[in-house]
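Extended Data, panel c. Modelled sequence:
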Amino acid sequence: MKTNFLSIFRPMLLVFIGFYLTFSCSKLNPLDEVELTVNNDVTKSPILIHFANANSSSTNVPGDFNVTISGKNANLVEMDGGSTNFQASHGLLPLYIVNTANPSTTNPVKFNVYAEIPGFAPVTQSVTITSDSVKVIDITAIEYANPADGTSVSVSQATLTNGVSNGDNFKTGTSATMSETTTVTIPAGTKVLDANGVAINANQLTSNIVHFSPSSPTSYSAFPGGFNPTNVVDQNGQPINNGEGINFVSAGLVAINMKAGNTDVKQFSSPVKVSMEINANTTNFDTGENIKVGDVVPLWSLNEQTGQWKSEGDVTVTTNSNGKLIANFETKHLSCFNLDWYWYGIRTCNRPLTVTLRIGPGKSGYFDVTLVTPNNQYLAALHGAYLTDGMRVTFPYVAQIPQAKIVISSFNLYLNPRLPILAQTNLFNPCAQGAIDIIFGAPATPDIVKVNINISGKCSNKNVKILPSGWFYLYDNTDAMAGKNPWTYLYLVNGVINFSYGSKITNNNGVLTIELVNGHQYMVYSWNNNTWYSSGLFTLNKNNFALPAGTGIVGNSVYNAGTNTLNITGTFTPNCK
C-alpha cells in the first residue's frame, strides 16, 4: 500500500494579461460579422513546471533551456500548440496531456522531466498525472557557484592523456550548513567512456559533484528524483512493489557529473571509489536510533534521463581517518547515488495521523506540514497548503518508525523552503499517536489592497469581447528580494478561473478580484505558442496610475480610498482576421 503524499506545489497568479492566448469570443452585437483566429481545442491536464534556484539568495535563476520528456507515457505529453520541442522560458515550462489520453488513478500518465540548466547541476523529476485537473510542479536546482544550504559542491578539472586518467581525487567542500564531504577517486590508467561504453579521446576532464544533506530542508527539497519514486527496480532490473513506487528515507545523496572534452562521461574501464561522509545525527530507519559503525544502508543509483532508480546493494558504515562515519562503495558508472532506506506496504502503519493546527483566531497563511525523523529526515509532507485556525491535516498512512515529529514552517520560496521553522512537536510514535495538536503563530498581515482587474481583447472596428484562456503569472519582485515566494499562478479557461494559487482570487463576470500588497513591485508574465510576454515592473500603490509599457496591453488603474480598492481596466489586441 503506497503512502499518499499531498504535494500541492506553488501555483501562481496573473492579473491583467491576455496576450495572444487561446481565445473564446462573445459578440456584443450579433449583427456584426467577426472572424477570429480561435483555437477551440480543449486542453487536458494543464501542467506547469517551474524550475528554480535552490538558493533563494542567489540572483542567478534558471532561464531558457531545453527539456527532455521521457518515460513510460512521454508520447502523451506536449506543449501548447502540440509541440514536442520542449523548451523552458524564464524557468517555466507549460505542458499538456494529449486529448486522447484519459489519466486516472487506475490509469495514470507517467513521465520524467530532465534538464541540464547552464550553471546548475542536472535536474530530474518523475511526474504522475491521475486526472484532468491543473497541476503545478516545482523543480529546484543546485547552482554550482552558489550552492544552497545543506549542500556542498566540487567543480574541478583534471588532465587526461588521450582519455586516460592520470589518477585523480575530487572532494566537495564544507560550509556552516554542510560539514560532510564526498570524495571520488579515479585510479591511474582508467579510461573514461561514454554512455555506449566507447572510449572518449579527450585531454581534459571536468568534474561536478554535489553532496546533499538528508536533514536540511533546503537540501532535500532539491533531491534529484524526489522521495516518492515510482520507477524503482532491484539489482536484477525487476520492478519493486510492482511499479507502484516506494518512499525513501535518506542518509545522504551525491550527484556526480563529468565531461571529457564536450562528451558526457557515463562509464569507466575500471571501478572508481566513492566515499560519502554521513552525519552522526542521522536516524537509521531500520533501528530508529542514530546511525553507527556497522549499520547497513541500501544504496541506489538514479538514471537522470529516465528517472529510474536501481538498487546497487548495501553499504556498511565505517569510519575514515578523521573519525567520521563514512559509506565507501565502488562504481563503473556515473549517476546520482543515494543512501536510502525505504518503505511502502511494508514498514507502513495502516492508521492515519491527524494534525490539528492552532494558528490563532483570524490568522491564516500558506504553510508546510512535514513529518520527519528525530533528526529531521523527510518522511512525508503537505506542501504549501492554505491553512486556517483549527484546520486538520491527515496523513492517511505513516512510516513505521519508533519516533517522529511534525514540523510547521512558512511556505515562502519552494527553493528555500520551510524556513523559518515556526513550530514543532515533541517526538511521538506516529503509529500509535493517531492525532496531535500543534500551536504556532502566523505572520503579521501586510497592507493589502483589493484589486479588480477587467482586461479584455478588442479587434479593430469590431464590437467583440475576447476572453483569454491559458497560464498567467504574477511576479512579486519585493517578495523575491526578501527571499520569499514571488510567484502566483493562474489558469483561465475562456476567462473563467480554472486553477489559482498564491492569493485570494475571485472571478465575477470576467472581472478578477485579488489581494495584493501596497508598495510591492510586480511584473506580469504570460507564455503561449513558444512566445514569452511580460509587462514592465511597476509599484502597486494607492493612487491612480497608468499600466506600464508592456506587450500589447494598454490601460489605467483608479484607486477608491473609501473601499481601499484599485480598479484596473485594460485592453489587448488578439489575433483577429
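The radius of gyration is 25 Å. This feature is highlighted in the accompanying rendering.
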